[in-house]
């Protein structure tokens, strides 16, 4: 069916646009210019994009804008979610629960390199040390496993 093949091409256009929009220096104008030229480049008969596709391009640009600067999203004790700007010791569970994203989808959405940390460095170190201590058969009481913040009242 012709409609169906057109839809597939639009899907390709959309995915290219989405990854382009994830670049930090991409502007709305860049994305729109690309959106106009892409269908032709991909062999789509319709050389112009619909207002709906324009809106989708702008929306993807906005959702791909990180809430905080990527290079400031990792500190020793916390990693900050680029979707909403909240800080955690590890992002995996939050991404799934709040944004429905896997770690891979999250990296793709913001163009994060494989080495970008999604777990706070200190937390990883502490876990490794804890594991090592267990492995050595020494039970250290002062460094119990992390628990949810206990009420101080
Ligand atoms: Zn979030």
Briefly say what this structure is:
This protein is an all-alpha fold and 153 residues long. It has two domains: 2-64, no CATH class; 69-145, Arc Repressor Mutant, subunit A (Orthogonal Bundle), CATH 1.10.10.
Structure description:
Belongs to the ros/MucR family. One of its GO terms (molecular function) is DNA binding. It comes from Sulfitobacter geojensis. InterPro entries: ROS/MUCR_sf, ROS_MUCR. This is MucR family transcriptional regulator. It is built from six helices and two strands; from the N terminus they run H-H-H-E-E-H-H-H. The protein is elongated. It has helices at residues 2-21, 28-41, 51-64, 92-99, 103-110, 121-136; strands at residues 79-80, 87-88. Helix 1 packs parallel to helix 3 (51-64) and helix 2 crosses helix 3. The N and C termini lie far apart (67 Å). A hairpin with a 6-residue loop joins strand 1 (79-80) and strand 2 (87-88). The chain folds into two domains: 2-64, no CATH class; 69-145, Arc Repressor Mutant, subunit A, CATH 1.10.10.1550. Helices cover 52% and strands 3% of the residues. Strands 1-2 form a two-stranded antiparallel sheet. The longest helix is centred in the N-terminal third of the chain and has 20 residues, at 2-21. With 153 residues, the chain is mostly helical. The site of zinc ion has 7 residues, from helix 4.
Bound molecules: zinc ion
CATH superfamily of the largest domain: ROS/MUCR transcriptional regulator protein
Please give the domain count. 2
Shape: elongated
Radius of gyration, CA atoms, in whole angstroms:
22 Å
The ordered string of helix (H) and strand (E) elements is HHHEEHHH
Oligomeric status of the shown chains? single chain
The CATH architecture category of the largest domain equals: Orthogonal Bundle
Please give the CATH class of the largest domain. Mainly Alpha
SS class:
mainly alpha
Describe the strand arrangement of the main beta sheet, using strand numbers: 1-2
For the largest beta-sheet, the strand count, sense and barrel status come to: 2 strands, antiparallel
Portion in helices = 40-55%
Strand content: under 5%
The N- to C-terminal Cα distance equals 67 Å
By CATH, the topology of the largest domain is Arc Repressor Mutant, subunit A
Q: In terms of per-residue confidence, which ranges show pLDDT below 50 for 5 or more consecutive residues? A: none
Number of strands: 2
Number of helices: 6
Average pLDDT: 77
């Amino acid at each position: 069916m012709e409609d169906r093949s057109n839809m597939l091409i639009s899907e390709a256009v959309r995915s290219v646009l989405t990854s382009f929009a994830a670049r930090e220096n991409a502007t709305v104008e860049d994305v729109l210019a690309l959106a106009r030229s892409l269908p032709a480049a991909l062999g789509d008969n319709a050389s112009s994009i619909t207002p709906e596709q324009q809106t989708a391009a702008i929306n993807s640009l906005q959702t791909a804008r990180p809430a905080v600067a990527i290079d400031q999203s990792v500190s020793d004790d916390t990693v900050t979610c680029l979707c909403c700007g909240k800080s955690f010791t590890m992002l995996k569970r939050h991404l799934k629960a709040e944004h429905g994203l896997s770690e891979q989808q999250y990296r793709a959405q913001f163009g994060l390199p494989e080495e970008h940390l999604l777990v706070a460095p200190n937390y990883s170190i502490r876990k490794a040390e804890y594991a090592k201590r267990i492995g050595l058969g020494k039970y250290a009481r002062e460094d119990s496993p992390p628990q949810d913040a206990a009420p101080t009242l």
